[in-house]
Amino acid sequence: MDLLKIFKTDHNGIRRSHIKNLITVAMADGKLEPDEWELLISIAVQLGVSREEIERIKNHPEQVTFVPPRKYEDKVEQIQDLVAIMTVDDHINSKELELCKKISLKLDILPQMVDEIVSSQFLKKQ
Questions:
Q1: d(C-alpha 69, C-alpha 50), whole Å
Q2: From CA 83, how far away is CA 26, in angstroms rounded?
Q3: Which one, 11, 93, 114, 115, has least CB within 10 Å?
Q4: CA 110 to CA 7: how far, in whole Å?
Q5: pTM assigned to the model
Q6: DSSP three-state, residue 2
């Protein structure tokens, strides 16, 4: 099953969990920058999440349970999205980086994967 199908049906909460993680990383430095919000909205729209649902998750994150995807590829895609949110402003905040690595561990992905994705993101931008 492909990732979009999983997120669009979201019977087990994977989509909401991922959006919550994206919001949490975006706000880890204490503010949600316009670039971060735009990218978050873009990712959410691709996953079939409405603006209302994003706002609901943002305003009530405690109502969303962490649910990791089963497939390794889907977990890596989530990490890539988290790194994209973290690096959208071309600045890596240490709190955002630490949080990405904590989430990677919860996804059963080694934190070094975050560093590798960060490196590849910055190489693409150059």
A1: 20
A2: 10
A3: 11
A4: 23
A5: 0.86
A6: coil
3-state secondary structure 25-48: HHCCCCCCCHHHHHHHHHHHHHCC
* Amino acid identity for residue 18 in this structure: H
- Render pLDDT for 16-57 as a digit per residue (tens, 0 to 9): 999 999 999 999 988 899 999 999 999 999 988 899 999 999
State how far the Cα of 10 lies from the Cα of 85, in Å rounded to an integer.
22
